[in-house]
Amino acid sequence: RRDVLVLTPWLAPIVWEGTFSRDILDAQYLQKNLVTGVVTFAVEKYWLFIEGFVSSANKYFLAGHPVNFYLFTDCPEKISHLQMAPENHLFVIPVQDDPRWQDLSRSRMDILSSYIQRQFQHEVDYLYSMDINVQLLAHIGVEIIDALVATISSWQVTPQQDNKASETQPGSQSA
């Protein structure tokens, strides 16, 4: 394609539909026997999104490739049996609800850091994090797999300096 940028100014590739061959990539990655992990949190009322998220991610996220879905929730008893593709696995991990919303992100990052160190690094080759209230509507394939990946949201394409959130935590190194 010549109608889109395929490289950032810092030389990171930008992947667009039509800039790669899905069949070639699928064949290459199947030979590598990679396992990808997806972590998500369903705490408090967000357990209502579990079925929609899991069914859409199971269908569209790396279809045909092994994926371990790690679901952190404070309501494991509310999760009914969810049908998974044969190559995929769902692991439900109980967590406590954090009463202070201000500490929510930090608390989740601490939990993820701990699980990455003691479990996930031994079970998956790549690890992604998704919000539980997301429903995938189209195929997301192995074109997203690399040593370091990120997504660009529309608001990030034309950043405005005055829209940066202020960091209020004294221990933060955020600029």
TrEMBL record:
Topology of this chain in the membrane: Single-pass type II membrane protein
Cofactor: binding comment: Binds 1 Mn(2+) ion per subunit.
Binding residue positions for UDP-N-acetyl-alpha-D-galactosamine: F41, A42, V43, Y46
Any single GO BP term: carbohydrate metabolic process
Translocase found in the keyword field: no
Annotated Pfam families: Glyco_transf_6
Residues that bind Mn(2+): D131
Protein name as annotated: BGAT1 transferase
